Amino acid sequence: MKINRLICALIIIGCGVFASYYGGNIPYALFYLSILIPIIAFLYTVYVYFQFKIYQSMNNYLVVKGDWTEYSFVIANEDYVTFRNVKVNFLSDKSKIEDTGQSTEYSLLPNESEKMETRIKCNYRGEYYVGVDSIEVTDFLYLFTITYPLSSKLKVVVLPRVVPLEQLGIAPPQVDVKNPIRHSNQTEEELDTELRNYNQGDNKKRIHWKATAKVHELMSRKYYHRPKAEIVLYMDLRKVKEEELQVVAIEDKIIESVLAIANYYALRGIASHIIYDMEGRKQINISSKEEFNAFYKTCAKLNFIAKEPVQDMIMDKIVRGEEGMFVVAATHLLTKEVYLTALKVMAGGNHLCILFISDDVSEVTKELINGIRMSGAYIYQIMSEDEIGDILSKEVLS
């Protein structure tokens, strides 16, 4: 294109010199023509932009991250002039169109159209634009290229993945779902050593036969109510300070790790609580698949704008004297305060697992990780290349 512009400029200069030396109608006609040609070329690019048509659509505008969705794209020349060198640039930072490069160039005769039917995949959770980003129109002499942003883009809402788990290896044995009765937030009955006289209608399995033989009366064992283990999942929604795509990847992993655990328990009818700060602290109680689905639909619009550190939310429960909890905290920040919180959680008779979503491998971070493990808590670092399902399914480290 630079060469074409240079040639055009030299022609204009040459025609100008020729007309100034020789004069006459023909030299001046050539001079004016040499000036008029680039003007016409420029006006052509403007005209093409306003006349060509682009149509694009998707089967569904509410999609799940990583799933392929049907996508169609049509570019049409509904005019009487041939359109040449129309390049379509596609958005590719957060989505991918199957069998298509980042840009495609078209030349269309009058009343001709090009149609592309393919699939599109969204790579990150959230609400953003996909499909065509901009149009580049180049004139027939390759003198000018004008890039026009598309005025009407496709906007989609992308839900995070729900990673299926066959087992939750990060859960300590005390809250292993192989014995799911112990995982509710209600209470359960358990036999006590205290005895009472047998009453008609009592379960015969409660009869204490040795005591009955001694006193020659039917004696029954009492039951007492023991609180069940409480499963609490914390999401750290504080702002992530990384590059743009790295930020989105970290945010997705935090949300998806908590969703995977909540879904795992919901499928087994086990209650869990999801706690996070977004314009104030929020607690979502999930005890069934229906309640999980209701929360899941809101996850595309979770914003990382929290002001309250995750350790403060955890400590709020510890201060109230609650114990026997299985606490999971998904965070992208590992600090001394998190370490001190881990000590207090474990001292209170609870179980703590920290999912540290970060590529940070500094010495300070390694020392904090080792310190948290020495406190008796469990901590797993999930890096960019790690699969959440693989980490969550691992057996608890001793």
CATH topology of the largest domain: Rossmann fold
The counted number of beta strands is 19
The residue fraction in helices comes out at 25-40%
- Report the sheet with the most strands, covering strand number, pairing sense and barrel closure: 6 strands, mixed
Strand order of the largest sheet: 16-15-14-17-18-19
Q: Total helix count?
A: 9
Order of helices and strands: HHEEEEEEEEEEEEHEEHEEHHEHEHEH
Rounded radius of gyration (Å): 34 Å
Distance between the termini: 65 Å
Parts with pLDDT < 50 across at least 5 consecutive residues: 174-192
Fourth-level CATH superfamily of the largest domain: von Willebrand factor, type A domain
The CATH class of the largest domain is Alpha Beta
Number of domains: 4
Q: Based on CA inertia axes, which overall geometry fits?
A: elongated
Beta-strand percent range: 25-35%
Q: What class do helices, strands and sheet pairing give?
A: alpha/beta
Q: Round the mean pLDDT to the nearest integer and report it.
A: 83
CATH architecture of the largest domain: 3-Layer(aba) Sandwich
Concise summary:
This protein is α/β, with parallel strands linked by helices and 398 residues long. 32% of the residues lie in helices and 32% in strands. The protein contains nine helices and 19 strands.
Give the secondary structure arrangement, pairings included.
Elements lengths: L1 H21 L2 H27 L1 E6 L3 E3 L3 E10 L5 E8 L4 E3 L5 E6 L3 E11 L3 E5 L1 E7 L6 E5 L4 E6 L27 E11 L11 H7 L3 E9 L2 E6 L8 H24 L4 E6 L3 E6 L2 H8 L13 H10 L5 E7 L4 H12 L3 E7 L5 H12 L3 E5 L5 H6 L5
Helix pairs in contact: 1-2, 4-5, 6-7, 7-8
